[in-house]
Amino acid sequence: MRAYMRIIFMTIILLTIPVIASSQIDIKRKIENKANQRANQRADQAIDKGLDAAEKGIKDSFSKGNNQEQSQDNKQEKDNKENKDEKAEEKSKQNNDDNSPSMEETPLMSYSKFDFIPGEKIVFFEDFSQDAVGDFPLLWNTNGSAEVVTTNLFPGHWMKFVCNESIWTDELLTLPDNYTIEFDVVPVAGEQNSMTGYQVRLYQAKNARAWDSGTAPGEGGFLYTIEYFGRPGYHTWFNKGECQQTGLTGYKEGDEFKQKMNQKYHISIWVQKTRIRLYQDQNKIFDLPRAFQSGCAKPDRIRFENGAAMVSNIRVAAGAPDMRSKLLTEGKLVSYGIYFDVNKDIVKPESYATLKEIASILTENPDVRIKIVGHTDSDGADAANLELSKRRGESVKNELVRTFSIDASRIESDGQGESQPVAPNDSPANKALNRRVEFIKL
To answer: For 208-351, where are the E strands, in sequence order?
Structure first.
């Protein structure tokens, strides 16, 4: 290889000597600059010609070796580029994570037809934060298996089940005629490494301490089901003789309503005596005015079963809040219907109906001014919670101004962090009570 490199250099020198010599001829003083320019041009041409000739000879003699070297060079260049791209992608992802409050995946206005308003009094709350990862959750029971997990895609603790059995609330729930149920759910791969769907039951148990067997367990209830291909469906059943003929079955057709594996969905269920409305994210997918006939069943248990999914943020609350009276007459409205992700200050889109109701009150009463105050639980540092609560109060104000056109001069915002709890911070349910937004009439 060195011999051929010497050939290149000798060729360049031999070809450029005449040209260089000619550049030294001084015919007339007045054309000196012109001659030098032409000489330089000829020298460049000669060098290029010499290099072309020498490189062609080397290429013909060492084509195989060069091809191998070129292949290695290309591979190295490709590897370097891929590494650089991966690092850039990783950095971009990190930046997105660090700035996640501005990267909300779903805008508030996408829920513009969402009319679900959660109950005011929390009856049951479960986010599995009190359970160790890998354990079966404390407040539940099962005839199969489940475990608490974390995931890099979704924050917080989740109860994951992959089974053909059931996992139910261990203690019976005391539910009034009107209440709401909410939870987040992520369908995951089943035993065959593909989506299997899952089922959720709201029913009246016969056995308070154990499993009610069969496809129609307990005294009766409401079944929400996601089939293996994602289609939502429902079924009601009642075991009392005079009620058995009132069972209902139905499905929600349309690809836009089908759930997909490894995607998070927010499910909201609104029970008003005999009526059940069920929402999947912003969509009302079932509205059954006679789902529960009077005297046929009074649900007191929630059960997940027959499939593969992760669930969290299960919230059961009683009573629709009288927001108008609370704000205008009593002077303070405490809201649990405005949602944020953990340690984030971006208002989640399922808050739309609550904010819309508050905006309607302000629109109809143009002289009313309010202060919005955020509150947190005691998890985390005091200073961080105080700052987070202030940002949340400001975010709620901004949504009322931006989305509902309320005059900003009518709204103040603040935050109190964890300094004003309404319950001890000793359980998920009590912590949920402390995470709230208050609207104070000024």
So the answer is: 220-226, 232-238, 249-251, 265-272, 275-280, 283-288, 301-318, 332-335
Residues 147 and 181 in one domain: yes
Q: Which of 304, 320, 336 is the last residue of a domain?
A: 320
Q: Please, is 86 exposed, middle or buried when counting C-beta atoms within 10 Å of its C-beta (0-12, 13-18, 19+)?
A: exposed
| Residue from 130, 165, 184 nearest 426 by CA | 130
Q: Is residue 24 part of a domain?
A: yes
What is the reported pTM?
A: 0.74
Q: Name every residue whose Cβ is closer than 8 Å to that of residue 155 and which is 6 or more positions away in sequence.
A: 341, 342, 343
Non-local (6+) Cβ contacts of 61 within 8 A are 4
| Sheet strands (E) in 86-243 | 121-126, 140-142, 147-149, 158-169, 178-187, 198-204, 220-226, 232-238
pLDDT in tens, 138-187: 999 999 999 999 999 999 999 999 999 999 999 999 999 999 999 999 99
- Cα angle 153, 157, 158 (rounded to 5 degrees) comes to 80
For residue 351, give its domain range.
322-442
Amino acid code (one letter) for 365: N
Spatial distance between the Cα atoms of 55 and 49, rounded to a whole number of angstroms: 10
Assess whether 199 and 298 both reside in one domain. Answer: yes
* Residues 225 and 178 occupy one common structural domain: yes
Contact 376, 390 (CB under 8 A): no
- Going along 38-190, which residue ranges are E strands? 121-126, 140-142, 147-149, 158-169, 178-187
